[in-house]
Amino acid sequence: MPARTMKTIETIRQRAPHLQPRIAVVLGSGWGGLTDHLVDAIQIPYAELAGFPQTGVAGHSGSLWLGQLSAQRVAVLSGRQHGYESGAIDGMTEPLRVLKHLGCHTLVQTNAAGSLRADMPPQSLMLLSDHLNLPQRSPLVGSSGSERFVNMVDAYDPALRAHAHRVAHKQGASLFEGVYAWAFGPQFETPAEIRMLRLLGADAVGMSTVPETILARHLGLRVLALSFITNLGAGMSAEHLSHAHTLQQAQLGSAAASRLLADIVAEMDHPS
Length: 272
Hints:
single chain; alpha/beta; Rossmann fold; five-stranded mixed β-barrel; globular
């Protein structure tokens, strides 16, 4: 284990000595309310953890939260580093490696995304069934060993997806499921690109999540991911797309999305 990783693990254990997390959660725009549901929460800024990114995007606070959701011990990464911030797509490698060594067996990811389906309007929630890696970039480039050839079939765990649907049904919440397309950004897609993505079979598009999914599968973590739909893709409506608009829409639905997420995580079974 790298010395930096050992140092960070020791820092976390000193701050939260009685909590060994089993589920890691990455919070994207619109999902920050999850931390309000944590019990006995401890917050550690990324700046105090070696190898954790310095987030530079509004809506991403840049803190590690440790606490409990019901009886579930969780580590919440409030904020991620996006590829468009520096060109590198491996910025979440160290945080996920640390959480794996702390005992996490599952990664739950969240993001804000644009819908490519007229029947999935803003304020909808979508469970990821698969993804399209449009840039064909991998955070594993440069790694060695046969483990880098990661099997991406069922990258988004079918059992966890079924569990999420059961929880949503119990809540009376509507939960779509579909394919997420990763666009590098930071610019939004053109109407022509949206038409292309629809032809390719994508249901939503966003600028994150896929690199972390690849990293998580490389580490042997199960993955579940959800998108908060903030807009229809370019050319599908008259709305003006902007990051401010994305944050505004995400804020409007944050409470309901975070409540569903909290229940999904709290009721997860441990892997056999």
